[in-house]
Amino acid sequence: MKISAIIPTFNRCEHISNAIKSIQNQTYQVDEIIVIDDGSTDKTREYLKDENIRYIYQENSGVSIARNRGIQEAKNEWITFLDSDDIWEENKIEAHFKMHQNKPTLFASYTDEQWINNGKVIKIKTHQKKEEPSFLNSLRLCKIGASTFFCHKSIFSDIGYFDEALTVCEDYDLWLRILKEYEIKLIDEKLTIKYAGHENQLSFSTKLIDTYRIRALKKHLFSKYHREVLDELIYKTTLLLKGARKHNNIEIVSSYEKELAYFESLVKN
After folding, report:
1. CA 164 – CA 65 distance, rounded (Å)
2. Is it true that domain 3-204 has CATH number 1.10.1240.10?
3. Which of 88, 110, 120, 261 could form a disulfide with 148 if both were Cys (CB 3.0 to 4.6 A apart)?
4. What is the pLDDT along the chain (269 residues), one digit of tens a residue?
5. Where do the structural domains in the chain lie, given as residue ranges?
């Protein structure tokens, strides 16, 4: 099994060395580490000049374009991602290898994760606990972290890449598209460590994040899961409107009242 690990990064020179070391220290070796520097203006390039990696610089274009560039550049048939502020436990890749060796028809897997903030482990709420994912049980929340994911490269030829129009929730969007066609198995071990509380974490800093989830869901509106997707769209749009009205966001209210009316009309029809 030949594996390429892809690290997208932007201005995280103080974190990325730890990410790279966690890949290099794996008990099952990764064959290629690709760092896609998405226009960093800090000392990322200088920090990485002595690392045994493939370093690719691009103008700042967003994480989806960076990950897609990594996939396209990858020389190996198996792909895995690691965000530059995360790390892996040393046996993460070995756990994937064993799972796929035991199930040769499996094309994708992911691990559980542990969040740390200011040196303390964040207690995960019940609804955030990992479970075997399906398309339907992944509609409400993004169950898979990009740094936990491992798959065969052929999936991207079949399903497509990360949606470059989505600045956030691009992972939620991709997992739904994959789960509609493929099985993704959970390795029920916390083999990915994620750190919260520092700058440039888009999922925490992006406003109106449900607008991106709604865009992702609308791709499946007329699929075989039409009614379940429609119910989720109504739920998310109602929630979004509640917040927009509270903060007097007239533009969002005007736009998404029309969206909600459309979704509700589909229920009646």
Report:
1. 6
2. no
3. 110
4. 999 999 999 999 999 999 999 999 999 999 999 999 999 999 999 999 888 999 999 999 999 999 999 999 999 999 999 999 999 999 999 999 999 999 999 999 999 999 998 888 887 766 667 789 999 999 999 999 999 999 999 999 999 999 999 999 999 999 999 999 999 999 999 999 998 875 555 554 456 899 999 999 999 999 999 999 999 999 999 999 999 999 999 999 999 999 999 999 999 87
5. 3-204, 210-268
